[in-house]
Specification:
This protein is of the alpha/beta class. The protein folds into three domains: about 190 residues, FAD/NAD(P)-binding domain (3-Layer(bba) Sandwich), CATH 3.50.50; about 120 residues, FAD/NAD(P)-binding domain, CATH 3.50.50; about 100 residues, FAD/NAD-linked reductase, C-terminal dimerisation domain (Enolase-like, domain 1), CATH 3.30.390.30. Helix content is about 30%, strand content about 25%. A five-stranded mixed β-barrel has the order 1-2-3-4-5. Strands 16-17-20-19-18 form a five-stranded antiparallel β-sheet, sandwiched between helices. Bound molecules: flavin-adenine dinucleotide. Flavin-adenine dinucleotide binds next to α1, β2, α2, α3 and β3.
């Protein structure tokens, strides 16, 4: 029998991904009550279909290749990857798609969980069609937080609607490695999964309308492209996709747009179709705001467009009804749903700031907008978002590229070098890497940094600290990298700059 249940909480969080969990945790720590509403698995995309399984699929290949590049160890490598063991380890890292441990954490933290689909019906009011058959009408005394994540884009490719294809969900949760995989999209997810499957034995073709990893400096992206090619991935760059159809044997044929658009070396030199057993479409994501009832509080998509939320530094949604920062604001959006940087760590950072801001506003400890870099403001989104591409070689980047710095009005310069230090030559035979700093010429501080090469991801946090801390370069000069580590590239970069 179904019932309509009326409940009141201080804070209602729609979506129990990593970001929703973190905001609920912070408001509870701040002395408020919170409910999480979740339609699928507690833990969200990252735990079950994104970060964890994709990294679990990549890591064994990187470890094996790492051994193969070190004489003395390479002689011991006598076999290739064991796909069944890799998939089994991936299953472990996704907890076999069971969320019991995360549910236990929610309960232990003092957060209430309602499983079901939620939507906003009025300011501070949310309805939930509970998976238990009940319908809930919830009222928030202080805030409603939209933490609903993102959904995959579907590119306008003829026939795509009519075939069964993989999104990143199917690619990260597959039970077997296809013999042939076609990947549409040259962004982070497409590139990572292309390499993971190539190393697991699939014959992989990656088709991208533009270049590979276009948001990163070209020299860095080129190293990743070389790594993929070395693994046998057939890269069809600067190539559009016209249509897709299924063949009698169940395989799929992707028909590509004619000749090369730019860069003859990158154009489709291998004919105009790709036939594969599976097709992964990884052409970006958009905030998951459909069916959330946002129109009930004055937030509608523009004519012919899609709804995007704009938020202040605490995550407060502009333009929602009755949501003035000067009054008693109530609607917040964080994580992928806010559409700023679709990354778990950054969403969780935003969640901590938003949760603390909600608790502080409830207690009257925060009025108006907080100062930049206060614990309530998500200032790092403007200056220092770290991003790692977990391919082999890795690509790690934080802050502004030179193009972004100039676009934002900085008088900026760059210094760049191949990574050639004692630490890198010890790390692997023929180590190839590249590093770049972007420097604010007026303040002589770092605006951004990029590293590409085997195992550079762990270099990134030093750069993040330097950017966030606005450490002057002549003070950074005194941060001595240990010998012989890859971090010595920092010293070489500063010397190259003239210190
Ligand atoms: C293949 C892939 C690999 C990635 N790898 C990395 C990585 O290595 N590192 C990294 O930092 N980021 C990575 N990301 C990005 C990362 O997964 C996201 O940034 C992160 O999951 C966002 O967290 P979230 O909590 O905002 O959203 P989600 O994790 O998507 O959680 C949102 C939750 O809300 C629920 N929900 C939605 N609507 C409703 C509703 N109306 N009612 C109730 N519940 C609802 C959903 O079921 C979901 O559980 C990757 C993404 C992909 C696709």
């Amino acid at each position: 029998m179904t019932a309509q249940l009326l409940r009141e909480f201080d804070v209602i969080v729609i979506g129990a991904g990593a970001v929703g969990e973190n905001v609920a945790d912070r408001v509870v720590r701040g002395g408020l009550t919170a409910v999480l509403i979740e339609a699928e698995l507690v833990g969200g995309e990252c735990s079950y279909w994104a970060c964890m399984p994709s990294k679990a699929l990549l890591r064994p290949g990187t470890a094996l290749h790492g051994a193969q590049t070190v004489p003395g160890a390479q002689e011991a490598v006598t076999r290739t990857l064991d796909p069944a063991a890799v998939l089994k380890r991936r299953d472990y890292f996704t907890s076999n798609w069971q969320d019991d441990s995360q549910v236990k954490w929610v309960e232990d933290t003092g957060i209430e969980l309602i499983r079901g689909h939620g939507w906003i019906t009025a300011p501070r009011q949310v309805e939930v069609a509970g998976l238990d058959g009940n319908s809930y009408v919830l009222t928030a005394r202080h805030a409603v937080v939209v933490a609903t994540g993102s959904a995959p884009n579907q590119p306008p490719v003829e026939g795509l609607h009519d075939v069964e294809y993989w999104t990143t969900r199917e690619a990260t949760s597959a039970r077997a490695v296809p013999a042939r995989l076609a990947v549409l999209g040259g962004g982070v997810a497409g590139v990572e999964l292309a390499q993971a499957y190539a190393r697991l034995g699939a014959s992989v073709t990656l088709v991208a309308r533009g270049g590979l990893l276009g948001i990163f400096p070209e020299q860095a992206a080129d190293l990743v492209a070389a790594g993929l090619r070395a693994d046998g991935v057939d890269l069809r760059l600067h190539t559009g996709t016209r249509s897709v159809h299924e063949n009698d044997d169940g395989s799929l044929t992707v028909v590509l747009d004619g000749g090369p658009q730019t860069g003859p070396a990158d154009g489709p030199a291998h004919g105009e179709t790709v036939t594969a057993d599976k097709l992964l479409v990884a052409t970006g994501r958009h905030p998951a705001l459909e069916g959330l009832g946002l129109d009930s509080v004055g937030l509608a998509a523009p004519e012919g467009g899609t709804l995007r939320l704009t938020t202040d530094s605490t995550g407060l949604v502009h333009q929602a009804t009755d949501n003035e920062v000067s009054g008693n604001p109530w609607l917040y959006a964080i994580g992928d749903a806010a559409g700023r940087a679709l990354l778990t760590h950054q969403g969780k950072y935003g969640a901590r700031a938003t949760g603390d801001a909600i608790a502080a506003r409830a207690k009257g400890e925060l009025t108006g907008e907080p100062a930049p870099w206060s614990r309530f403001a998500q200032t790092a989104y403007e200056h220092a978002v770290p991003n790692v591409v977990f391919t082999d070689p890795e690509l790690a980047n934080v802050g502004r590229t030179i193009a972004q710095a100039e676009n934002d009005g900085f008088r900026a310069s760059t210094v760049e070098l191949p990574i050639q230090v004692a630490g890198s030559s010890l790390h692997a035979e023929h180590y190839e890497g590249w590093a770049q700093l972007v420097i604010d010429e007026d303040r002589k501080v770092l605006l951004g940094a990029t590293f590409a090469g085997p195992d550079v991801a762990e270099l990134l946090h030093a750069a993040t600290i330097a950017v966030v801390g606005e450490v002057p370069l002549d003070r950074l000069w005194h941060a001595v990298p240990s010998y012989p580590t890859i971090s010595e590239v920092w010293l070489r970069l500063l010397e190259e700059y003239g210190l």
